[in-house]
Structures are given as C-alpha cells and as structure tokens.
Amino acid sequence: MSSSPEALRGASAALTGHLHHVLGDLASARTRGAVLKVMVAGSLAALDAAASVVLLPDEQTGGLAVAASSGSPDNLPGGSDADGLLAHTAFRCGQAQYVEGPASRPGRSAEQAAGPGAQAAVPMLLDGQALGVLVLDYHAPHTFTEPERLFLGTLAGQGAVALGRAVGLEQLDRLQGRTRQIEMAARAQDAFMAFSDAIGTETDLLALARQAIEVLRARFPDASIGYYEPENGRWKARVWSQDVTPQVAALIASGLTPETPMIARVLHTRQPEFREGWNAEQEQLATTGEYGAVANYPVVVEGVVWSMLSVGLRHSQRWTGADRALVRAVGRGLNLAIERAEAVQRLSQQNAELAAQTRALQVFADLTRDLALSTEPLLLVRRAQEVAMSMLPDGFALYYEPQGDLWRCRMQLGDLQSPELQATVDAGLPYAETQNLLTPWTTGQPYFQDVYHHDTDQLSMVVGHIGATATLPVRVGGRPAGVLALGLFHQRAWSKVDRVLLETVVRSLELALDRSAQARDLEEERAALEAFTRFTEAVGGETDVQMLVRQAITLLADTCDVDAAYFERDGDLFKARAWSEVDDETLVSLLQGGFPLVNSSIALLLKQNTAAFIDHWNDTGLLIRETGIYLAVAGYPYFVEGELQSVLMVGSRTSLSWDERARGIFRAVGRSLDLALLRARQTRMLQEQRDTLDIQTRELSAANEELEAFTYSTSHDLRTPVRHVMSFARLAQKDLATHQNDRVGRHLTIIEQAGERMTSMIDGMLVLSQAGRANLKPRRVPLQKLVTQAQNDVGLEYPDRPIHWQISRLPTVWGDATMLQQVMTNLISNGVKYSSTREISRISVWADEQPGEWVIHVQDNGVGFQPQYAQRLFGVFQRLHPERDFQGVGVGLAIVRRIILKHGGRVFAQGTVDVGATFSFSLPMPS
Fold this sequence. Notes:
The strands form six sheets. The protein has a six-stranded antiparallel sheet, with helices on both faces. Strands 2-1-5-4-3 form a five-stranded antiparallel sheet, with helices on both faces. It is built from 21 helices and 28 strands. It is of the alpha+beta class. Helices cover about 50% and strands about 20% of the residues.
C-alpha cells in the first residue's frame, strides 16, 4: 500500500485536509509523546472512531503496550489477550489488518463474534521495520473505504518517521547532556587543580576566596557562594558569585549579626554545617528563600573563626556524600592557605617593623634636632608633618585647631588632589560634625581608620579618593591644642609600628611646643612687664578714653614699629576713633567710615576674647583691600557685658609674622588699656550716678512743692465738711435748749453725713499717698487678663446693672501688675457708674500702638462732660457732677494719674455731654 501524497489524490477533500493538518503537526513535534498525541488525536478526529490507540513494544513483557490513546474504547488492545491479536498480527507481518464487523474478528467464538464493532490495526513502518501499531476502534460495524485506508497508512508511515526523529533527538539530548557533564567535571577538576596550586603560593586572601568560589561553582552551577569576614561586629561578604540577586547582595554586603542563626551555630561549634531543607524565615534571612540546602564552612585559625565560606543550592534540598566531601576539601584548602598567608603576613610585618624602627631612629634623631632649633609653633608642626609623611606613602598631612564653630587648618603638607576638598578645608570644617577630628580631641586618644568611612565627616561628595586616615590629638601644657590629621589615597591596615611611630612624632611635637610655649611665655612676660611699666606711668591718672587710646597707640608705634588704630562699635559697624599717622587718605576715609567685623578671619579670632594675631595677612584674604600694605595684623578685643564694643588693631609693614617680643608688648598694652578703659567706665558710671542723684534731688524738690499745693487744696476741700459739722452742731445745741427735737435730729443727720464724707476724703488721700510711695515691680503684664479681672470686680459692685462689653485684643505691656490692675478697675468702674442713667451701659476697651508706646482707651456711653474741663477730672477731689447724682469723693482718677506717671506715661480724656466719655493712658514700650 502506497503512503505517498500522490496516492491520496482520489480521497475526499475533507479527509485530505485532515491529513495535511495532522502531517503539519507531526513535522513540528519534537518529542515522542508529542508525536503519539498528534497521531491518536488526528486519526480519531478524521475518521470519527470511538477510540484511537498507539501500541509500542514493551521490553519487559515482550509484547505491545499502550503508549498513547484517545477516545473511549471498550477494551484497550495490547498484551497477548484476544483483543490484541489484530495488532500483534499487523506488527508481526508488517501489513495493515482490518475487521469491519464482529463476524470477521479473528480468534473469537461464535458467541463473541455476535457483538457489534470494527477495528483497524496499521503498522508504523520505518525502513521496513515496525516501530509500533496504530489501532482505530469502533463500537459498531464500519466499512473502511479506500480513502480511509490510504489516510491511516499515510498517518502510520509519517508517524513512524516522526517517532524515529523524536527518538533520535532524545538520544542526542542525552548525549549532549553527558558531554556537558564530562566538560563540567573537567572544568571542576581544572579549577580544583588551580585552587590546589594557589594554596601553596597565593597570599592574597580574597584572591584565594575567589578561586574557591570558582571551584564550587564548577561543581554546583546553580549555587550561590559567598566568602565572609568579620568587621565592626558584623559578618560581611567580601566576595560572592555573580548569580546572587541584588537583594541578597545588599544583605550580605552590609553584614550579618553574630546572632544570625547560621552565623551563631558556626561560631559556637567551629565545625562545617550542612543544612538541608533550608527555612529562610527560621534562619532570619527572608531574602534567601530561593535556596533549598545551605553549607557553611568556618575557616579557623589558632582556634578563632577567621572567616566563613557559604554555599547555597537552588534546585536541591539535600547534600550528597560527594557534595559534602567537595565542600570540605575546598574549605580545608582555603583554611590551610589562609593559615600560611597569615604566617607570611606576620613574618613580613615583623620585617617591616624592624625596618621601620631602624628608619624611625634616624628620623627621630633628625626631628629632635630640628625641633630644638625653632620656637615658632607652626614651623614645629610643619617639621612634624614632614617626618610623619616621610614614613607613609602618597598622602597629605593637615593640622587643625578649633575656632568657634569650625575646625581651621593652620598648616597643610601635600596636595589634597581635589579642588573641591581643598576649598572645603580652606573654608573650615563644622566642629560638631567632623568626627575624625572631634573624636581624638574629646577622647585624647588617636583615631585610626584602615578604610576611611566617607560619611565620618559628612564629606562623602569630596573624599571618595581617600582610602585611610589617622588623626592624633596634640596637647600643649596638658591641654588640647590641635589635631594632626593624616590622609592616604589608598587603604592601609595601620600596624602597631605605624601607630607607635606616629604617636612618637606627636609626642616629640608636644614636647617642642611645650618648650616653645615656655620660652614664649618668658619673653612675653619680660616684654609685658616693660610695656606695662611704661604705659602705667603714662595712663595712671587718666580717665579720658580718647587720651588713653592715643597714648596706647603712641606706645605701640614707638616700641613695635607698627601702625595702630582704635575702633568703637557704631551699630553694625566698627569705626576708627583714633589712629597712627597714615599717609593713605583713602585708607583713613575707610577707617572713619567703618566696616563690619562679621565673618572675617580677624573677627573669628577676636571672639576668643584675647589677643588675635594673623601672620601673612596678604595671603589670608584682606578685610579691606587698602590694608594690603600690611604684612601681619593683630587685634585686641574689648567686651562690655559680654558684647564686643571696641577693638585695638595694629598692622606691621615690615614683618610677615609677629615675634615673641611684639606679641608680648601688644598683649601687655592691650590688657593695660583694658584695665584703664574699665576704670574710665567706672568713673563715668560714678559721674552718671551723681548726675542721677542730682536729678532725683530736683524731682524731690518739685514733689515737695506739689505736696504743698496738694496740702493746700486738700485742707481747703476738707474745710467744707468740717464747717458743716460745726455749724449744725451749734444749731443742734440751740434747738436742744428749746426742746425742738425734730430739728435736732435733722441737724445730727447732716453732721453724720459730713463726717462720713470727710472720712471718705481722708481714705482717698491715704490711697493716693500709698500710690505715690509704692515702689514699682515691673514685669510683662498681659492687659487682657487685667481687663477680665476688672470686669469681675465691676460685676460684684453693680450686680444688677446690664452691661454690654466690647473688648478688643489687648497687648502685653511692661509695668507693675498690681498698680495697673487698679488703673483698669478704676476706669472701667468709673465708666459703669457714669453710664448708670442709661438703659444699658456700653463699655469699650481697646489699644493703639504708637511710636515707642501703647495707648489704652476706656469708653462709656454715660453723661459725658464739657471738653474744656477735661484736665480737672484728674485732680484730687475734683468733680464735674453733683455728689447727689453720682457718689464719690473724686480721688479715683487722681490715683490713675499718679500710677501712670510713675510708669512714665500720660493720661488724658475726651467727652461730650450726654454722649459719653473716653479716658486714655499711655505706657512706654521697653527699649
């Protein structure tokens, strides 16, 4: 039977279409299962059978076994039973077998043949050899047409071709896999041999760790491997395989704590650990959930866990014996290499230490000689920097001293290799944020960083090229004086020899600075004694400030050959009040015009409240361009109550730096002038006190005159009730004689009323007197609170009086709270009293801010008064309304006036008859 496409030309178009579709699927099928699935599904769909089955030889039974099926056959043919006879016959003879009805089924009894069903068994032939059988089964009789037989024959033949191709591909895949395994084993062996060779020669520990990782990766291509070392209390990965995810890389690079379970176990046992069934949550390493098994091998040197090798398998939950042996072998090799490298490093370090000690002996001899020849502090620092850097490769040295809120670099040796960093150093470093300097300064101990942490000094943007640092405190006279900072452009493990050498350099520098300071102190004391003697003789009895300043300027010009000027604060500027003869008119004009001392180098020094000296003035940045004629500048500050008020400045045109003699004389003159200025200020204060006493005497005299006038007014006003008492007492006596008792009663009532009025007037005089004698106790007083209290007081005085209040926002003033409470209560009570004739009393209180003072107003809607009599209201016993209409003796407003005058304010009033009145007072604002 032909299986070529030409033989199917007579088949139906539908069946031909099915065949083309199935053959296309067979051509693209790459595996045995895919081929068989296409055959059973395609034949079942094309011929509308009940089931389609592919049978393949079974090596164990020697028969045929079902390899793929589709549909629902009654019995799957196969094995050696009767249902499989047709398939076995087709497979054995290589010819298609067809049964179109039950009677035609071979090997069946008559009873069995009576049932319905049809079947086709077509061998799958490739190069004349049957690879299997395609079986098509029907539940009812079926006649296989020629196109159907051609379809099945073609499908079986092309299926055999596709099945042969799939089997070949599977064999090729197995062969390639085996080849890869052989190549991988060869690479692993080569890597292990290279690692074994490196163990005996390599001293770079990280290089050895990388080779160990390569060996393990060759054996475990799906594994992640890392090498850890302890640093600052954490176990940090130094190198790791490239397959590690960014999340895990960030975790292991930042380091694991010793309490992490996998770290803690290894540190405790110091033995290799093979963890199967890795639980990331239990291990407190959530980002490592992709691993199934993990091994940790500790590298132990002299009983201490030196480092650790960690291997994580992604696609395996267990460690085989061979895998464990390989990890142990690599770990032992790494352990041996590290032990040997450590021994080599120790030997190398000992040799380096011996060489460094030999070199240091010569260096220290030179340093001692050089330091003995100079007394200038910065030159001593420079020489110490040169000695220190001669023992270190490729770096720089800086010497810092704290000035205010900044660290100032006083001496630099070497190029910082960064313009940005140089500009930052020149501008000064923040005192509190620069930990590299603050740590040795506060602890008194050297601070070494093998690997400079760029955030130590908050300078990460400009210090990326610095690898290691060392900062050592410098003490003079037992007190911190500065910090010597050394920076290297590469990382360096500071050895004991390094530390001893640098500490010895600093100690030698401290001894030289102590000796220099002692010599300088002696010289200054001698010069100061001489200058003080001369200046004391000149200013011993002088109190005129300008005269004192001119004599100090003259003394400095004569003894030190300098120009001098004395400046006093005028607002934000310092203006020259006296100066040496200067031939530069522009400079004189500028000095007289004044300049600020804010943010200048000299201002920062003057804040120390001691003499400030700046050498090489024209190299440090000029305060005023015209002062470029000076080579060195010095200043002496004068403070009054903690604030800089004046400065004595000197400038040298002949010397770049100040010698000890000039410094001593300037300090002595500055201190002497300070004492003289203090004495002058005290003299002025004494004079001011005398002037104040004269003023108080005049004020007392004026007060006596006012008292006399007040006594006259008071005695005149008190006569009225006294006359009433005397007159009506005589009338009462007469009426008693004539027994006119009714008239006597009326006279006695008038006498009683006059006595009560006189008592009220006397009480008012006492209150007024107390207000005048009381001492002020000024403080900040919130007026809003006083008005609230006055409202409460008035409510108790007039409980049944309806009052409408309009209180505006009031300020906080400066005064005596008790006295001002009396003022507010009197004014508000007065307003309610004189508005009692209205249906509702309306009281308004507000304040106006005026230049230098607050003005407070209290307004009512009462009976008012005629404006021309406004000033009479504040006199004692002065009334504009009859007492029968409004009770009172007329001292309330007089008390208000007396209190406000004591506060330095004024009182005034405005009124309109039958409209209302406004009483106002002012309070000065504190300056």
